[in-house]
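Title: Request for sanity check on TIGR01906 family membrane protein prediction

Description:
We are preparing a figure and want to confirm that the structure record we downloaded matches what your pipeline produces today. Could someone re-run it with the sequence below and paste the raw structure tokens into this thread? We only need the token string, no images.
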Amino acid sequence: MKNLLIMLKRILYGILIAVFTIGVSTIITLNFKFIYSYSIDKYNLVEVGKISKEMLIKDFNTLINYLQNPFIKKLQFINFPMSLNGEFHFYEVKKIFLYIYAITIIITLFFLTVFLYNKISGKSCTIYKVLNYGANSLICIIVGIVGIISINFSKAFIIFHKIFFNNDYWIFDERTDPIINVLPEDVFKLYALAIITLISLFIIGYKIYFYKKSFKKVKDYNKNLKL
């Protein structure tokens, strides 16, 4: 029974670290505004949108600020009109990002509480092991995501929307929501790749930290045996 509880705790910690890492990577990537600046040049969005790069960036920044700030109640672009359906879709996207922020903060507080409790009660705080559980969970997740995206990103993109949205408002009509012309699927692909890259860097960091701490533990143990 004890071994089962230990295994379940490891699985829980691994999942929580994985969700935390995905959340942090998503939040960081959302603020990588240079990706959109690069996309403007790569996909010739100035010509597509018929406005300057500066104005495209201003409207994109307006969108990013709206998605992250709970105090901004209404989205209004400078250069693009928007339908009620389009506005509602962006509102639903905003809710998803705010949930990501909330979940990330809750998991952070959870681990801080566990860490402080262990510290006060004199229990060992094996953070490196917890991070390793998360790294193992993330490896499984990333392999699956990369496999799906590499096969057919467009299909994965559609499936993602069908999972997270219970309507078809995400299918924009360029006549009523011309913003979609300057937010092509390729832009989202770049952001997805950035998130995957960040998560991969976290995995590497977790693994390096784990093996360094494990090696030190073994080294100290062998040293004590000699004494």
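Thanks, this matches our download. The mean pLDDT is 90.
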